[in-house]
């Protein structure tokens, strides 16, 4: 290689690196815009007047900012009751899901029993089943037990979480076996090992499962729509459908958007505060055979 070629090689590498970074950042920016633009449009539209919303031309910013849509939504609906229902369903439902996922994953990793592999395959198979498929049989079962318009009817059908079991199983398999062996030699039983060793070491993964389930329970719309008819038992996601005015649909668009913003804000703030746990949790729960 000549001196000129040797000097040109680093420049070519730098150009190639800049082109690669430019391409990656361009893809990242486009992906972020695809996710954020609908949310931004929703937020701005919640401050628009009915005339701004009725136009056929795309208009991102409102011509006149107004909180009338929020005032109308708060006047028409008992948001305090809806918020309480959503909080109860989210806390109890997500909490029970995390507990069941912890127990199931611990059994699949640290307990020996016949058919353990097949049970894990069955758990994975549940991830392939769309939740919409189970709505009808769940409704027939829960309604037959008298669970319509009840908290337990809202919570019970969604307690099994294949995703949480899978992620925690993978995380538990990454834990140092020496610590578990030492605890067993010291006479620690399964209950002690679970809460004093496994759970503290797998904290990021457990936080990830908890956060994902909280977001899912808070935003769940289909099941509360099916199982609740009484406004006193509706969650926020279900309750905002009462803002729909069949006689004047155009006039109800603004309040619906305002209600949707009020539903999304709490979970978006929670996600923004705890999002680093998702990265740590997925890293800790990396797939291992």
Automatic annotation (TrEMBL):
<feature type="transmembrane region" description="Helical">
    <location>
        <begin position="118"/>
        <end position="145"/>
    </location>
</feature>
<feature type="transmembrane region" description="Helical">
    <location>
        <begin position="82"/>
        <end position="106"/>
    </location>
</feature>
<feature type="transmembrane region" description="Helical">
    <location>
        <begin position="25"/>
        <end position="44"/>
    </location>
</feature>
<keyword id="KW-0813">Transport</keyword>
<keyword id="KW-1003">Cell membrane</keyword>
<keyword id="KW-0812">Transmembrane</keyword>
<keyword id="KW-0472">Membrane</keyword>
<protein>
    <submittedName>
        <fullName>Glycerol-3-phosphate ABC transporter permease</fullName>
    </submittedName>
</protein>
<feature type="transmembrane region" description="Helical">
    <location>
        <begin position="194"/>
        <end position="216"/>
    </location>
</feature>
<feature type="transmembrane region" description="Helical">
    <location>
        <begin position="249"/>
        <end position="274"/>
    </location>
</feature>
<dbReference type="Pfam" id="PF00528">
    <property type="entry name" value="BPD_transp_1"/>
</dbReference>
<comment type="similarity">
    <text>Belongs to the binding-protein-dependent transport system permease family.</text>
</comment>
<dbReference type="InterPro" id="IPR000515">
    <property type="entry name" value="MetI-like"/>
</dbReference>
<dbReference type="InterPro" id="IPR035906">
    <property type="entry name" value="MetI-like_sf"/>
</dbReference>
<keyword id="KW-1133">Transmembrane helix</keyword>
<feature type="domain" description="ABC transmembrane type-1">
    <location>
        <begin position="83"/>
        <end position="274"/>
    </location>
</feature>
<feature type="transmembrane region" description="Helical">
    <location>
        <begin position="151"/>
        <end position="173"/>
    </location>
</feature>
């Amino acid at each position: 290689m000549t001196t000129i070629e040797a000097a040109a090689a680093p420049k070519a590498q730098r150009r190639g690196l800049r082109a690669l970074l430019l391409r990656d950042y361009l893809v990242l920016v486009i992906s972020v815009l695809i996710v954020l633009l609908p949310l931004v449009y929703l937020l701005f539209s919640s401050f628009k007047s009915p005339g701004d919303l009725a136009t056929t031309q795309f208009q991102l910013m409102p011509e006149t900012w107004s909180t009338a849509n929020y005032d109308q939504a708060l006047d028409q609906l008992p948001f305090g009751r809806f918020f309480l229902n959503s909080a109860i369903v989210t806390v109890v439902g997500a909490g029970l899901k995390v507990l069941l996922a912890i127990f199931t994953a611990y059994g699949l990793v640290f307990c020996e029993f016949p058919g353990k592999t097949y049970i894990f395959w069955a758990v994975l198979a549940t991830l392939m089943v769309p939740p919409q498929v189970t709505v009808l049989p769940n409704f027939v079962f829960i309604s037959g037990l008298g669970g319509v318009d009840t908290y337990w009817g809202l919570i019970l059908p969604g307690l099994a979480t294949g995703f949480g079991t899978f992620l925690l199983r993978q995380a538990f398999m990454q834990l140092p076996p020496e610590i578990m062996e030492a605890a067993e030699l010291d006479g620690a039983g399964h209950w002690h090992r679970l809460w004093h060793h496994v759970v503290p070491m797998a904290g990021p993964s457990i936080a990830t499962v908890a956060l994902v389930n909280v977001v899912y329970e808070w935003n769940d719309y289909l099941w509360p729509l099916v199982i609740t008819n009484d406004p006193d038992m509706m969650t926020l996601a279900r309750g905002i459908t009462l803002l729909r005015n069949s006689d004047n649909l155009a006039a109800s668009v603004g309040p619906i958007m305002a209600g949707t913003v009020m539903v999304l804000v709490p979970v978006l703030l929670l996600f923004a505060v705890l999002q680093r746990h998702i990265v740590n949790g997925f890293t800790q729960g990396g797939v291992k055979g």
